[in-house]
């Protein structure tokens, strides 16, 4: 990732956090998943090749945010 993309993705992350804070009153207080659910969804080893930023953010929404 070069510095231009780093700046772009950094701004996107700040926007993501701001959107989260703006919508926090509509989000669940407790998780809607069972403890340990994420363990079965992630690989045992890190990927050999990095993923696209968009795919990472989809995974965050799909797997991380419900917990």
TrEMBL record:
InterPro entries: Aromatic_deC (IPR010977), PyrdxlP-dep_Trfase (IPR015424). Signal peptide: none annotated. GO terms for biological process: amino acid metabolic process. It comes from the Eukaryota. GO terms for molecular function: carboxy-lyase activity. Gene3D superfamilies: dopa decarboxylase, N-terminal domain. This is Histidine decarboxylase. It comes from Nephila pilipes.
């Amino acid at each position: 990732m070069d510095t231009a993309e780093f700046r772009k993705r950094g701004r996107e992350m700040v926007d993501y956090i701001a959107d989260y804070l703006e919508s926090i009153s509509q989000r669940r207080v407790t998780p809607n998943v069972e403890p340990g659910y994420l363990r079965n969804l992630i690989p045992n080893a890190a990927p050999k090749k990095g993923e696209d930023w968009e795919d990472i953010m989809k995974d965050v929404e799909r797997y991380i945010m419900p917990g």
